Amino acid sequence: MPYPKPFFPTSIWDGLTANVDRVTVHSNVNPNAEDWERIAAEVIAIERSLGAPESQTSDFALAVESGGIQLVDATSGNITVTLGPAADLDGFKFTIKKTDASGNTVTLDADGVETIDGQTTRILNQQYASLTIVSDGTEWYIL
């Protein structure tokens, strides 16, 4: 499966292969600590993108360990999705989708004074409404 090559020298990335239970790097170079940190971040992103959607029925927070796709059922009441600090989730992408037909809302709430395309909150109030957001390390952007 081809993966994007956003950070690594080709000599490192071309040797990266993924499997359900392991990642192996074959390379003719010795990656330094910074390379390994980038490799780890990419592996986490790959694992998140391959994972099954997570279902939510109450307030929750998005963090490094959160799945990339969140299906939210607000039938029993309004739900707030608290975004972790953009700096902690630099480069992370999440899709949040409201799955129910109730009049309840799903509110995405940015951390502190951070924003989502210039606003501190975004609201999903229609069944099947969704937002895909990505962090640049300082703010969140809707894709």
What can you tell me about this protein's structure?
The chain has helices at 10-13, 33-50; strands at residues 16-18, 23-25, 54-56, 60-62, 69-72, 79-83, 93-98, 106-109, 121-124, 130-135, 140-142. It has 143 residues and is of the alpha/beta class. It folds into two domains: 10-50; 54-142, gp9 (Jelly Rolls, Sandwich). The chain is elongated, with a radius of gyration of 17 Å.
Main features:
143 residues, disordered N terminus, 31% strand, 2 helices, 11 strands, five-stranded mixed beta sheet, Jelly Rolls, alpha/beta, 2 domains, 15% helix
What is the secondary structure topology, with strand pairs?
Layout: H1 10-13, E1 16-18, E2 23-25, H2 33-50, E3 54-56, E4 60-62, E5 69-72, E6 79-83, E7 93-98, E8 106-109, E9 121-124, E10 130-135, E11 140-142
Parallel strand pairs: 3-5, 4-6, 5-7, 6-8
Antiparallel strand pairs: 1-2, 7-10, 8-9, 10-11
Looking at the overall shape, the CATH architecture of the largest domain is Sandwich
Look up the CATH topology of the largest domain: Jelly Rolls
What value does the average pLDDT take?
A: 82
Poorly predicted sequence stretches spanning 5 or more consecutive residues:
1-21
Computed structural class = alpha/beta
Estimate what percentage of residues fall within beta strands: 25-35%
Q: Tell me, briefly, the overall form.
A: elongated
| Rg result | 17 Å
**Helix amount:** 10-25%
CATH class of the largest domain: Mainly Beta
Q: Separation of termini? A: 24 Å
